[in-house]
Structures are given as structure tokens and as C-alpha cells.
Amino acid sequence: MNPKHALVIGGTGMLKDVSLWLTNEGFIVSIIGRSKSKHLDLVNKASHPELINSLMVDYNNHSLLEEGIRDAIGKHGPIALVVSWTPSLPSLEIANNIISEQSRKWKFFQIKGSRRYFNDDSLNVSSSCEHRSIYLGFVIENNHSRWLTNREIAQGVIKSVIDDSKQSIIGRLHPYEKRPKY
Q1: Strand 144-147 and strand 138-141: pairing?
Q2: What InterPro entries does the annotation carry (predicted)?
Q3: Of all helices (H) and strands (E), which one includes residue 5?
Q4: Domain count, the chain
Q5: What is the rounded CA–CA span in Å between residue 34 and residue 40?
Q6: What are the backbone dihedrals phi and psi of residue 40, each rounded to the nearest 5 degrees, phi first?
Q7: What span, in angstroms and rounded, lies between the C-alpha atoms of 99 and 93?
Q8: 143 exposed, middle or buried (CB, 10 Å; 0-12, 13-18, 19+)?
Q9: Strand 79-84 vs strand 106-112: parallel, antiparallel, or unpaired?
Q10: Is the dihedral of CA 48, 51, 55, 59 positive or negative?
Q11: Strand 79-84 relative to strand 52-56: parallel, antiparallel, unpaired?
Q12: pLDDT digits (tens, 9 = 90+) for 119-133
């Protein structure tokens, strides 16, 4: 049986541990990120580097994004799972359209910032896509708030993928006025 193919948009930074976890789960993981050094770091940390397909693409460059996703599908087969941290709806729509052409049924875990929970732009996805929303909140410790760490985010995203909930929140979103300042 061929391994399942996953796409992680933003998979060399905040989602690095998610990318590594997916390879440990046996997925071939196509990872979109801009930094060559971060791609190399990820490959060096992987238990299964042969399962990583690095796509050094800026997701805002739509023609290169489309080319990269099509190339990944051509080499590794249809994409069964997408995990994405990007605010760019046009980029996500491109990914949705390309993946839906090739995949009968697939899951899309869209990671969103806390503001999007209260004022969300909805993404139109194809009928073959099972869309999931993961909202990133904050943590309150000793009466002070802070943003989630990359590790907390990755652990929460992994739990959300395992639980397969339509909507999940990592950290907390309320009280909104307690959100950390940037």
C-alpha cells in the first residue's frame, strides 16, 4: 500500500513538529516554506527524512504555489491531509482547487489566529474536502497572558488532527480583552 500524502503549508516554522509527527505516522509530507535553512533543519531532525518533500515556495506567489502542489501530487499521489497556517485565502483556494481535482476525499485543517474566531472569513471548499478550523488562543499564567509557544501550538494541532473535530481551540480565546499585546 502506498503511504498517504500530506501537505503542510508553513511546515518548517511553527508547524515543524507537526510535519515531523506526520512523517512518523507514515505520511509522505510535502512541506511549503520559504527558508532553505529551515527545510534543511527539518530534514536533519526527521526520523524518516525520505518522507519529506521540501517545496521552497512563498505561498503568496500563486503560480509557483500551484506548480509546487501539482508537482508534489504528480510525484507522491493525491493529498489526503492538509495542515495550513496562512492567512492568505487566495493561496488556500488555489490549494483547495488543485487538491480537489486529484483527491476524492481529503481533510483540511486550517489554523487561524484568535481574531478570526470572532470575525472569520469563510473559505469555500469543494465537496470532497472535510474542512476543520483550529483557532490559536493564548495562555494566562500568574495573572499575565502570553501567546502560545510553537511547541504548544504543534501539540494542539496534532491533538486536533487526531480528534478530527470540526472546530478546536488551542489555549483560550476569552476573555478577549486579556489577549497579550504584540
Answers
A1: antiparallel
A2: NAD(P)-bd_dom_sf
A3: strand 5-9
A4: 1
A5: 12
A6: -65, -40
A7: 10
A8: exposed
A9: parallel
A10: negative
A11: unpaired
A12: 766 778 888 999 999
- C-alpha span between 152 and 138 (Å, rounded): 10
pLDDT over 80 at 28, yes or no: yes
Note whether residue 103 is domain-resident: yes
Q: Which of left, alpha, beta for 164 (phi over 0: left; psi -120 to 50: alpha)?
A: left
Host domain of residue 15: 5-134
Would residue 29 count as lying in a domain? yes
Judge whether 25 lies within some domain: yes
pLDDT tens for 133-143 read 999 999 999 98
Q: Beta strand pairing status for 5-9 and 28-33?
A: parallel
